[in-house]
Amino acid sequence: MFELITINGKELPIKYGMNALRIFCKATNKTLGDLEKLGNHLTLDDSVHLIIAGLKDGHRKAGQPFNLTVEDISDFLDDDISIIERAMEIFSEQFSLKEEGNDKGTTPPKKKKSSAGKI
User: Fold this and answer.
1) Residue 17 CB-half CA count within 13 A
2) Per-residue pLDDT tens for 32-47?
3) With 0-12 CB in 10 A as exposed, 13-18 as middle and 19+ as buried, what is 79?
4) Could you tell me which of 20, 8, 22, 9 has the C-alpha nearest to residue 90?
5) Helix orientation angle between 44-62 and 18-28, rounded to the nearest 10 degrees
6) Which of 36, 53, 61, 89 is exposed most, by the fewest CB atoms within 10 A?
7) 37-55 as b/e, with b when 16 or more CB fall inside 10 Å?
C-alpha cells in the first residue's frame, strides 16, 4: 500500500515500510537502534533522505520508475517546505497502522507491565 504526495505539482507514490527504512539506513549510515531516536533528533539531511526513501519505495510498489535525487527534493523544499510535514505525517500514519497490527485504525490491547523483580 502506498499513498500519494504532491511534490512540485505532481502526485507521487510514497511508502514507508521496512524497505524504505533499509534504504534510509543505508543512505545515512544509521542503524535500526538509531531509528528510535530519530524523531527527537531529525536533521534536515535526515528529512530529505527519509523523503527519498519513501518515494523510492512508493515508486517501486507502484511499478513506476524513480529518478529524483536528494538535490531535487532539496530544491522542491525551497519552494514548499511543507513537503517535510506531509511526508512525516504519512510516515507516522503508515507506521502507526503497522504497530497496531491491522489497518482498521483500532488499537490492540496494551500488555500489562510486570512488577516482578522491581524494588
Assistant:
1) 13
2) 888 877 777 788 999 9
3) exposed
4) 20
5) 140
6) 36
7) ebeeeeeeebbbbbbbbbb
pLDDT tens-digit profile of 63-100?
999 999 999 999 999 999 999 999 999 998 987 766 55
Q: Which three cell numbers stand for residue 66?
A: 524513480
Distance CA 77, CA 83 (A): 7
Q: How many CB atoms lie within 10 A of CB 23?
A: 19
pTM score, two decimals? 0.78
Nearest to 94 by CA among 21, 6, 32, 8: 21
